[in-house]
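ABC di/oligopeptide transporter inner membrane subunit (Deinococcus aetherius), 317 aa
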Amino acid sequence: MTAGWLARRVGLALFAAFGVCVLVFALLRLVPGDVVTNLIGLEGNVSPEQQAEMRRLFGLDQPIWQQFLTWFGALLRGDLGVSLRTERSVFGDLLLRFPVTLELTVLALLIALLIGVPLGVTAALSRGKLADVLSSGFVLVGLAAPEFWMALLLILLFSLKWPLFPPNGFVPPHESVWGNLRSVFLPSLALSLGLAAAVTRIVRASLLDVLGQDYVRTARAKGLRERTVVYRHAMRNALIPVVTVIGLQAGSLLGGAVIIEQIFGLPGVGRYALEGINLRDYPVVQGAVLLIAVSYVLVNVVVDVLYGLIDRRVVYG
């Protein structure tokens, strides 16, 4: 891996994030209505002159291309603008909310790996047996069930029937670490089950393929224990497709956080973006989408780097 390759990869990632921003900027303004329309609905009768003045104050009277240049110029200076509804700094709000979304997605990823990897290994080593059949059932349910349905089911079971976890709300970790874990566990579990099912399927298929390779048979012929053969020799190569799936699904976790945060009442970036969409608050939506897009492309850069660390045969130049 060279510095030139890494610089090109980061450049392409930032270009992709820029393309997402342009697309979101244009699509938001193609949707009928704007923030003034929403405010008029809340405030009652507003004269056309007042509406025009409000649009002028918000900068919505300018052509779309000029609005984009104004926003992008401010973005290059590190300014994401202010909310048209609350007049609060979008950058400041995102700094407050991003740790919640980050904790949610990281915990969901950890849960998915803790479920998916052992289950996939067990299914591969028990091919055709009961454990393999049960894991296949879990994969089918996990991939088919929508995240919001799983969230509602988990609330019904573990918050209402058995009150082990709170159904909504968020406790910051500086107030109570245990309370924080209880408030984010159910949302993370609901968000993780789909990824856990995908990881289970990929680990099973990849491990079955690797276990049939010559070097694995050689390791077994030397008398090594099965555990050593599987976890020390086979799993290293079997993990490459798993890393690929995790990198691709990272965006799904961030996207799924929008609905999960709304259901569980978590003050994260996803809920912030959803509120901005409902109120046509353009700076809020653009800032939130930009943060999610940049996070997604950076995860993909990290995945590419991990390829070279896991498999020395992968060389970037």
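The mean pLDDT is 80. The radius of gyration is 24 Å. ok done for today
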